[in-house]
Amino acid sequence: MSLLGIDVGTTGCKTAAYAASGACLASAYREYPTLHPRPGWAELNSRLVLARVWECIAETAVATRQDPITALCISSMGEAMTPVSADRRILGNSILHIDPRGGEHARRMADDLGRAAVYAINPNIIGPNYSMPKLLWLRENEPELYRNTWKFLLWGDLVAFMLGGEPLTSFALANRTLLFDIRRECWSETLLQWAEIPPDLLPLPVASGTIAGTVRRDAAEKLGLSPGVKIIVGAHDQCCNALGAGIHNAGKACYGMGTVACITPAYDHLPPADAMLACGLNVEHHVLPGIYLSFIYNQSGALVRWFRDTFARTDAAQTPDGEDIYDILMAEMPAEPTRLLALPHFEMTGTPHFIADSAGVLAGLHTHTTRGEILKAIIEGAAFYFLESLNAVKALGIDTSEFIATGGGAKSSAWLQILADIYSVPFVRPRITECGTLGAAMIAGLGTGCFADAAESVAQCVQRDRVFEPNPRRSALYREHYARYQRLYPALKDLLAELEQ
Q1: Cα separation, 74 vs 237, whole angstroms
Q2: The domain spanning residue 117 has which CATH number?
Q3: Strand residue runs (E) in 59-120
Q4: Which three-class secondary structure state does DSSP give residue 31?
Q5: Up-side HSE of residue 265: CA atoms within 13 Å toward CB?
Q6: Is 139 contained in some domain?
Q7: Can you say whether residue 216 is alpha, beta or left, with left for phi > 0 and alpha for psi between -120 and 50 degrees?
Q8: How far, in Å, CA of 3 to CA of 342, rounded?
Q9: CA–CA distance from 261 to each of 255, 258, 264 (Å)?
Q10: How far, in Å, CA of 238 to CA of 352, rounded?
Q11: Is residue 142, in this structure, part of any structural domain at all?
Q12: pLDDT tens, position by position, for the chain (501 residues)?
């Protein structure tokens, strides 16, 4: 038997089948484009994304016929919801978290209810990135679509539902809507009533690891799955990623290096709301009972992908089979810290400031500047962005003496060394870096009794590969460079806001 982890991200989807020992038996990956119907808007074609997910499942199923999949679980991005009918038809696209639509409703919620009062129910920093503002925008601007929708499903819920599962969502994903009561573990009557959204439009929140059903016979035949494959409720991708990195108790943190870079500290209680709100930090359920997580996030992998598509599109198209364009580009980076400054405000920023009226900046360019220097500056700038929040996390008692690195970016030794040097702490690369799919597979194992508990699943599946120690000399140089980085945005703030108008 094997366990299938499915990870649906903003720019691509992955599947991987794992043995109970944690060995990866087969995997698949597909990318899909972000649609921009108007400047600033960002959507996914939900039908296309689902088709790509099906391709990945089918490819992985074929490769594991000798060790057939018995259960699957989905890790997915948060916030973006897809309208569906009761007979499992997709009715429209999903609006991504970086899309500003609905911002006026987020501001209205903050004015009407108060940020502190909302945070006490749903501990997120109110903004346009969550699901609720998008739903209200759809109700106003696409009333027929809104009226014809049976359920709005988050991506993990959608994949499970289209495979044959019940319309359920995890506590973690429900939290990303801005409508969930984290203490009562259900939809908030107060927030739903304010938004005038009936609860029947939303999936039922349940704990991660709940069995949502089995894969429909026709879907199983189409995808090459065995009959009776169980569908297990997963979670928000960063939560699955944390479990796949071995975070099964409080006090540690992992560093996700995917489309979005995300530092994820874990708590064994709900931290004080006033302190968390002051730091701009959210709280949501982990995939394990009694454990909570926060996310310190911003663009990172998305910026590296932008660099690839902008500066190396031809190189990527001509890269021989078996070679990775990212390895080629990383090899061009200088060994020493750059003298360039990159402001990673290419989209709305994440924790702690959530700045929408800004833009990306590359400063210090010369005619002799190489693209390797530019790439390294982008990676450095994205890492600098987190230093302010890391100080706040330390004050809350979270151990940041090392980070477990996960995601596609963790495969790059050069990238991990930059992070170790900037933060002056070791970075640990686990044997399996695609921890989203691994964490989802571990949840599938927990939900079907393959593992006795989370500790056993971590002991079986999570192993260290290499530790990247900081270089003291380069760390000192980065401390000086960070002081210059801190001056960049204040110096350009008004100009960047004007350009964004």
Answers
A1: 8
A2: 3.30.420.40
A3: 69-76, 81-84, 94-95
A4: strand
A5: 25
A6: yes
A7: beta
A8: 41
A9: 7, 6, 10
A10: 17
A11: yes
A12: 899 999 999 989 999 999 988 999 999 999 999 999 999 899 999 999 999 999 999 999 999 999 999 999 999 999 999 999 999 999 999 999 989 999 999 999 999 999 999 999 999 999 999 999 999 999 999 999 999 999 999 999 999 999 999 999 999 999 999 999 999 999 999 999 999 999 999 999 999 999 999 999 999 999 999 999 999 999 999 999 999 999 998 888 899 998 889 999 898 999 889 888 888 889 999 999 999 999 888 888 889 999 999 999 888 888 888 788 999 999 999 999 999 999 999 988 888 888 889 999 999 999 999 999 999 999 999 999 999 888 877 877 777 888 999 988 999 999 999 999 999 999 999 999 989 999 999 999 999 999 999 999 999 999 999 999 999 999 999 999 999 999 999 999 999 999 988
Residue 201: domain span: 2-246
> How many CB atoms sit inside 10 A of residue 290's CB?
11
Q: Is residue 48 included in any domain, yes or no?
A: yes
Whole-model pTM? 0.87
Residue 17 CB partners (closer than 8 Å, separation 6+): 2, 3, 4, 5, 24, 25, 26, 27, 60, 61, 63, 64, 67, 69, 441
List phi, psi (to 5°) of 22.
95, -5
What confidence tens digit (pLDDT) does each residue in 327-349 have?
999 999 999 999 999 999 998 88
| Token code pair at residue 272 | 């004080």
Q: Could you give the angle at the alpha carbon of 180 between the alpha carbons of 179 and 182, nearest 5°?
A: 150
Question: How would you class 13 by CB atoms within 10 Å of its CB: exposed for 0-12, middle for 13-18, buried for 19 or more?
Answer: buried
The Cα–Cα gap between 40 and 52 comes to 25
The sign one gets for the Cα dihedral 409, 411, 417, 419 is positive
- Which amino acid, residue 412? S
Q: What is the number of domains present in the chain?
A: 1
Cα angle 470-281-301, degrees, rounded to a multiple of 5: 50
How many C-beta atoms lie closer than 10 Å to residue 141's C-beta? 11
At 411-432, the pLDDT tens digits run 999 999 999 999 999 999 999 9
Cα 305 to Cα 18: distance, rounded to the nearest angstrom: 28
Helices (H), 264-412: 273-279, 301-311, 313-318, 325-331, 371-384, 387-395
CA distance 452 to 192: 37
Give the pair of three-digit tokens for residue 369: 């500047």
Please report the DSSP string for 216-230 in residue order.
-HHHHHHHTPPTTPE
Tell whether 59 is covered by a domain. Answer: yes
CA dist., res. 173 & res. 308, Å (int)? 31
| 285, 360 Cβ separation under 8 angstroms | no
